[in-house]
Amino acid sequence: MLPVTSVSMSSTLAPARAPVFSPAAVVASCVGFVLIGALQALYGPAIPAFREEFGLSPSGAGLGLSAHFVGGVAGVLLFDRLFGRIGNRRILGASYLLMALGAAGFALAPNWPTALAAALLAGLGFGGIDYGLNQLFAVGFGHRSTAMLNILNAHFGVGAILGPVLIGVVGAGHYPAVFLGFALVNLPLLLCLKGVRNRAPQPSGTAPDSPGALGRSLASVLCVFVALYVLHVGIEAGVGGWEPTHLQTVGYGAGVAATATSVYWLMMTVGRFLVAPIALRFSAQAIITVSCAGMTVCLLLASVRGLAPYAYAGVGLFIAPIFPTGLPWLHRATPGARRAGALVIAASMIGGVAAGPALGKAIEWSGIRAVPLLLSGVSALCLAATLWLVRTTRTR
């Protein structure tokens, strides 16, 4: 990697007279990301209880998580419309309340349609928090924004690990108590919103330093960023969903396959913590380029039976920084596109939803053993998109 020598992100922001976050608000934001990570991960382990309580088929029970993601995309787009029109505290406060109300409604729902409506409501709040905090962290810390975004998103992984553990401890049959407890834990975070600056600095609407510095139209740059986010989240979901099946197909036991998948998610969380200090010295472009290259190599190595569990762990480590590290780069590269952040965050959610059916259809044609090779092809597209963006957004 090359050290950062280009114009830092802080030069693209309007000067701030006060910090965007107080120290207490930073801690509360990280707790908020633990909660949204846990909420997303609670639905899966509770599916057996959903099915028994409401008499659902597997596909019917899976609609709970789908409703959550649909609400998440809607929440991102809705709160993007409000961003800058009302204060940041109101946006985040409304998001926490919606998520709490949705989780409580899901716990107390008398029937499955009501539970789906509650999951949709919780997803709205989820999307608002995901979008709002990512947006504010991307513009609120100057040259430290990339590091802080990685720390923030690492806490999402902490929640995603703790959620299933909590369901496992209390039992899936007690999922209403878990969702109710989750709703209550949201409420104290409202008290910390006074530490969030109501009007955060915005990326300047001016063009880069020299005319034509982007080299191509703003729309093309934004489209490639969206493609990068859709593809890399598709890989993230694809590995998480198909790694256990692939490992068992090539001869590993079910226990080893499950443990290796847990390690994959753990490495994704660890990777974001590890990259935070690195982001203070190296550019987002360099970090993402190395991440995509490493991810591609690890997926190719995962096709070798003896290396597969370790290679998948490497995929988790390399894929970890891409989502949070790309956001500050996006804001620098598309200063005139106010909704750029909302588009890529919403696209990332859509990529996670679409990955399952798309990869499943490809596996029907090629077989389970081809999973890492299929994903390595997608990863190579991520690398190609990154190299195009590096060349196109280079500042003269």
Number of distinct beta strands? 0
Spatial separation of the terminal alpha carbons: 19 Å
Specify the helix fraction band.
over 70%
Order of helices and strands: HHHHHHHHHHHHHH
- Major sheet size, sense and barrel closure: none
Morphology: globular
Count of runs of 4 or more consecutive helical residues? 14
Average pLDDT metric: 85
Rg of Cα set: 21 Å
- Structural class label: mainly alpha
Low-confidence stretches: 1-16, 204-216
- Could you tell me the strand content as a percent range? under 5%
Can you tell me about this structure?
The protein is mostly helical. The chain has helices spanning 23-42, 47-54, 58-82, 88-108, 112-140, 145-170, 175-186, 218-249, 254-279, 284-301, 308-319, 322-333, 340-366, 371-392. Helices cover 73% and strands 0% of the residues. The longest helix has 32 residues, at 218-249. The chain is globular, with a radius of gyration of 21 Å. Residues 1-16 and 204-216 have low confidence and may be disordered.
Brief sketch in words of this structure:
The protein is an all-alpha fold. The protein has helices at 23-42, 47-54, 58-82, 88-108, 112-140, 145-170, 175-186, 218-249, 254-279, 284-301, 308-319, 322-333, 340-366, 371-392. Helix 1 crosses helix 6 (145-170) and helix 10 (284-301) runs antiparallel to helix 11.
